[in-house]
Amino acid sequence: MKPILTISFLIISFFSYAQTTISGMVTDTKGIPITGANVYLDGTYDGSSSDENGTFSFTSSETGQQTLIVSFLSFETYYLPKEVNEMKNLNIKLKEDVNSLGSVVLNAGSFSAGDNSKASVLTPLDIVTTAGSAGDYIAALQTLPGTSNVSEDGRLFVRGGDANETNIYIDGLRVFQPFLTTTNNIPTRGRFSSFLFKGTNFSTGGYSAEFGDALSSVLLLNTIDEPDQEKTELQFINVGLGGGNTQKWKNSSLSANAFYVNLKPYQDIIDQRVEWIKPYESLSGEVVYRHKFNNGLLKVYGGLNYANLELIQEDINVPEGVNFGLKNRNLYLNASYKGSLGNDWSLATGASFANDFNDVKIVDTNVDDDENSFHLKLKLRKRFSNRFKLNFGAEQFINTFSETADSPDFDSFKTRYDNNSTAVFTEANVFFSKKLAMQIGARGVHNTLLDYTKISPRASLAYKTSSKSQVSIAYGDFYQAAQNDVLKYNTTLEPEKSSHYILNYLYQNNGRTFRAEGYYKAYDNLIKFDTEFAEFDSNFNNTGDGYATGVDIFWRDNKSIKNLEYWASYSYLDTERNYKNYPNKATPNFAATHNLSLVTKYWISDWKSLLSTTYNFASGRPYNDPNTGVFQNQKTRSFNSVNFSWAYLISQQKILYFSVSNVMDFDNVFNYQYSNTPNANGEFARRAIRPNADQFCILGFFWTISDNKADNQLDNL
Q1: Which region holds residue 563: left if phi is over 0, alpha if psi is between -120 and 50, else beta?
Q2: pTM value?
Q3: DSSP assignments along 82-128, one per residue
C-alpha cells in the first residue's frame, strides 16, 4: 500500500509542478482596460477572460513555445508566439479592427448603391422603384446630386462633363455601348435590364486608379452572384412584352430573358411632336450563366439587341424636315471570374467584347458604322493585414472602327482605324486606425494609335469625426482619348485631361443619411475644331480648356415617418469650357446651375400599394442667340417635372404597375435652333426644342411563377 501512495504523491506533485501561470493585462492603444477579452492558448482549453481592470490569469500544463490569442469585438485579434514560462505579467494592447462596423469609409466622389455597402445611399430596389425612371437604372441615378437633367438625351451628365465623359462597367469590365441607339432630341435609356444587378457604385469624381479613359465619372454595375430560386417571369406593358426563366443546379444556374418593344400602338393614341414614319421598335435577349467553384465564381453574360426607327426630324432650315432612319444591331459578351488563391491573395479577371453596327439614312445619304471592341483584364489583390491591402493589375483595350458613307453629292467615303491601348494600375488601401484611412494609387496607359503614354496619380483620405460622421478628401488626374466622331478624321491628337479636387462630409444614423460634397475640376487639352461639327476637312487641335466647380447635397430618411422613404438632392454647378467650335469659354447647353430632385415612396398596407413620386427641377440652361452677338448669353426657362407611379400587389407574385411622367404637364424647353440666315428684318428666326411628348405613361402587369409562392414581386419593381 505504501508504494502506491508514494507513486500517487509523485504523480500529483509532478502535475502540480508542471502547471504554469499565464498572466497580464489587456488594454487598447490608449491604455484603457478592456473588460471581457478572451485570452487562451491556441489549440487548448486553457484560458480565461479579462476582468474589469483588464487583468487576466490562468494556469496551463503546456510547455515550450505556444501561441497566446487575445480577441475582443471590434478589435484586431492579437497573436503572441512565446515560451509558456515567459508569459507572465504581459502587457497586451489591442488595435481597433478597421474593418468592423462603424469604421471609416473611403467614399469621396462615390455613391454606393448596395445592401452590403457601409456608405450606401440607395439600394438596388430603389433603382427600379423611382417614379419617372420607368425601370431604367440610368434615370434613377439622375436623381442623385452631381448629375444634370438633360431629358432630351437620357445619358449621364456629371459635374459639368458631357455624356461621353462617363464610362460604364459590368463586373469590372467595360461596356462600350451602354445605351440604346437613338437620334437627336429623342432620349435614350440604358441597354441592360435593371434586374441583372445587385448593386452599383456611381463615382461622380475622383474614382479609383483601376479605371480610366473617362474625364468625369464611372458607373460600376455588379451583377447578381446567385439567383434565389428557379422561376419564370412574365412582363406585359403597353409598349411591349417580355419573359424570362431561371434554372438552378447545385453549383450553377442559367437565366435567360427576352423583351420586345414597339412604340407604334402607343404613339397612334398619344399625340407626338415628331412625325414618325416607323416608331421605335426593338427586340433584345440576355443569357446569364453562373458557376460556383470551391474558391471562386464564374459569370458569363451575353446580350443581343436589334432596334429600328425612322422619322422626319423638324429643322428650321429645311421646311419639309429631314428624313432620318436608323437600324442598330448590338452584341455584348462579358465573362468574369473572381476567386481566392490562398494566403490572402485573390484574383479577378475577365474579358468583354462588343460589336455595334449602325445603318443610318439621312435624306439621300447612307452611313454604315461597324465597331468591334475588346477589353481584357487581370487584377490581383493581396491582404497583408486588416490595415494594408494592395491591388494591382493590367488591362488591354482593342478597338476597331470602320465607316462607309454614300451620297449622290459625293463619292463613297470610307474611314477606318485601330485604337489599341494598354494600361497598368496599382492601388493601396491603408487603414491607420478605425478613424483614419487612405487610398493611394496610380494608373499608366499607352495608346498605340495616338502614340502617347500618360501616368495618372489618384489619392483619397478619410477621417471619422464621430461614430456617425466622417470627412474625406480626394484628388486625381484623368485622361480620355478622343471619341469616334473625331478619331475617324484625325489620329494625332493628345488625350483630353481633367484634374479633380474633392471635399466630402458624410453623416449616417438610424436610417438617415446626409452627404455634402464640394469639388473643383480643371480641364486641359480639350479638342477644338473650326467647323460646325467635326468633319473630314476640320482643323483639329488640343488648345481647349475649362473648369467645373460646385456643391452637391444629399439627404435621405426612411425612419421619421412610418412606411415613408424619401431622399432629396441638390446640386450647384458653375462651369465654363472652350472646346469644339466655341469661339470663347462659355457654359455648355447641357449644364444647369441648379438641379434639384425630391423622391418619395410610401407603402399603404390597406391598399397593398407602393406610391412613388419624383419632382425634378433644373434652372434654365444656356443657349446661343445669334441675334445678340454674344455667345451662349441666353437661358431657357426652368425645367420642372412631377412623376408618379403606383405599384399594386394583386397577390404575392402578381403586380399591376402604372406610372406617368410630368403629371402637371409642364411646358419644358431644352434649347432653341436658329436659322442659318437672317430674315428681311435682319433677325434669325428660331424654333424651340421640346420633348417628343410632354407626358409618357406606362401600364404593366408583372407575374412571377415559382415554387416559393411567397416570393414578393414588389421586389422586382
Answers
A1: left
A2: 0.86
A3: EEGGG-SSEEEEEPB-TTSTT-----TTEEEEETT-TTEEE-HHHHH
Contact residues for 564 (Cβ-Cβ < 8 A; gap 6+)? 558, 600, 601, 602, 603
For residue 290, the SS3 value is: strand
Please tell me the distance from the alpha carbon of residue 167 to that of residue 177, in angstroms, as a whole number: 10
Query: Band of the pLDDT at 101, cuts 50, 70, 90?
Result: low
Among 129-138, 262-271, 488-497, 687-696, name the one with the lowest average pLDDT.
129-138
The mean pLDDT of 100-124, rounded to a whole number, is 55
Question: Residue 279 is which amino acid?
Answer: P
Residue type, 607: W
Residues 538-569: tens digit of each pLDDT = 999 999 999 999 999 999 998 899 999 899 99
Task: Dump the DSSP string for 129-192.
Answer: HSTTSTT-HHHHHTTSTTB---TTT-S--BTT--GGGEEEEETTEEES--B----TTS---BSS
Find, among 216, 221, 223, the residue nearest to 156 by Cα. Answer: 216
Average pLDDT over residues 379-392: 91
Distance CA 453, CA 198 (A): 36
Q: What percent of the chain has pLDDT over 70?
A: 92
Please provide residue 193's backbone torsions phi and psi, each rounded to the nearest 5 degrees: -65, 135
pLDDT tens-digit readout, 85-97: 999 999 999 887 7
Specify whether the CB–CB gap between 595 and 570 falls below 8 A.
yes
Transcribe 259-324 into DSSP letters. EEEE-HHHHHHS--SSEEEEEEEEEEEEEEEEEE-SSEEEEEEEEEEEEEEEEEEEETTEEEEEEE
Of 88, 43, 28, 129, the C-alpha closest to 649 is 129
Integer Cα distance of 636 and 37 in angstroms: 65
